[in-house]
Amino acid sequence: MKERYFHGGNRKLRVGDYLLPPTETGVLGTSDLNPLCRRDRVYLTQSIHGAQFFASAALSPVVYEAVPEGEIEADPDCTEPGVSIACQKAKIVAIHKIPGKVIKKNKKRMRAAAATPQKTR
Q1: Distance (Å, rounded) from C-alpha 71 to C-alpha 105?
Q2: What is the Cα–Cα distance from 33 to 82, expressed in whole angstroms?
Q3: Is 60 exceeded by the pLDDT of residue 120?
């Protein structure tokens, strides 16, 4: 079975378009908040639920199913090998809507996480 990869984002692209890194689009995303993430990479996950979670932060959330292109590397922020990858770009092959109740639940989780004090080392 072929591996499926997903990317959560704002509804503005179509099947056949490419997901491009922030260095090419100038668009800020959740990866910009993480110092481990590279701005010249697109991040994809095999978890549609993970993509839905990150998409829920967008104004018009959607999940793109995409095929990675170019050099593929491990996502330095993911502890499970193969679950999340980084690539130079990815071609959109399908678009998945996110149920409103899932978006609402994810936004609640995000607010709770933001309100929880972070541990310092």
Answers
A1: 34
A2: 22
A3: no
